[in-house]
Amino acid sequence: MTDRKRLKLKEDFEYYAKNCLSIKTKSGKTEPFILNKAQRYIHEKLEEQKKLTGKVRAIVLKGRQQGCSTYLEGRFTHKTTFNKGLQAFILTHEEDATKNIFSMAKRYYDNLPQFVKPEIKASNDKSLHYSKLDSGYRVGTAGNKSVGRSMTNQLFHGSEVAFWPNAQEHAKGILQTVADECGTEIVLESTANGVGGFYHEQWKMAEAGLSEYQAIFVPWFWQDEYRKTLPDDFALSKEELELKEHYSLDDEQVYWRRIKIADLSAGGFDGSKAFKQEYPMNAAEAFQVSGGEGLIGADAVLRARKAQCNPQGKLIVGVDPSRGGDRFSVIKRMGRKAYSKENYTGSQCDKLGKNVAICKRVLDTVCPIAGKRPDMMFIDSGGGADIVDRLHELGYENRVKAISFGASALNPDKYTNKRNEMWGEMGLWFNDENLEVDIPDDDAIQADVCASPYERDSLDRKVLWRKEKIKKELGFSPDDGDALALTFAEPVVSTNQQPLPNRPMRRA
User: Fold this and answer.
1) Residue 170 pLDDT more than 70?
2) Any idea what the CATH number is for the domain that residue 204 is in?
3) pTM metric for this prediction
4) Of the residues 18, 62, 181, 318, which has the fewest C-beta atoms closer than 10 A?
């Protein structure tokens, strides 16, 4: 083998996989490993992050049997057989999965061409160790709380993390065996397993930019094999037609989905809900709210994500300030169109002056869609009373108002407080089937808006879960949802396009 070819094998994983790795297909055949669309996408995202930061920290949300583990075991085989001193560890959710993962890694090694096959010093049913390279490959099962705590690893793959029985313990144990250094990699992947718990919390943090992990989502319809031959009498339902148009599906994919939902409905289960968890089309639907439906359903939000409405009426801005590590969320709405969602985290909004500057910029900017500056900005007083005070000092008292979520509702016969009223009116806005609404095509805002479970009081009024309960039960704070709900705080009856105030900003 020439030095040029060996260098290409070392530096180009796709080339290496096709020429050196063998996989067993779903039909039982052994074939060269050629990356599918999902695997290639994950690979590109990891390589981009590695180039940018020098290391990999990623959390992957995907459907069943899309080849994520196949890719990661190939990636780690590539790294450990070409580099000295690299230890890879794979932690799975159950013993059978551990055996399957190690069998895959062992198959990779056994079928390597001799010119890239390092000598093994030791091998058993859970580890490989390459003698001259001093590199290795080990696997373990999450049922053991202390597994791997005493190790030092450079590469870590957490498999089906949402199903780990001792996830918090492993976060404090095995995950800490990977140093925060260049060249190290941690990838946590899983199908969803409801809301709350370690994996869901980590996903929401990554999605919001609140951790060093990047969130990578892989939809089921990227798999070429997830299609089924159509019967002669095939016809699309209204829901299927909407999904086909929104996600650019073909009829064979839609029919595969229909049959899979029927299979998952056996035994009286909710097949549609199970399908969304096992084969998600977007990240928001993978994590489903427990405890019943919310004020706003996923179907209504999906319709709003693909709709296109002309902005009409007053330009209203909702601002949900950051509290305790949450996002600082800003969104605009004109009539039936919500747009220009902005999120800020960490040091972007850690001081009053920065928060005021964000709001001042929005207030001073002539919106290209609206052709004017905002008519009104509603800010949650729970975390933004000081922001409102400062903006009033700067001359925006007629266009900025603090809203207390616990204040009395304008319609107390229907709503218990202002928060329930804002969300209730937003729910009516979304759920009106006679009029389209238009929101950003964004998974995060869908997840937040759908995080609206409620109970009923003695007067049969809908009472949303308290925000603290939502954070505890669902594992995240619906900041984007609260920002959009704030645009329904009060009627805005008059525009106020006064000249911009000419008052200096002061440090806060």
Assistant:
1) yes
2) 3.40.50.300
3) 0.72
4) 181
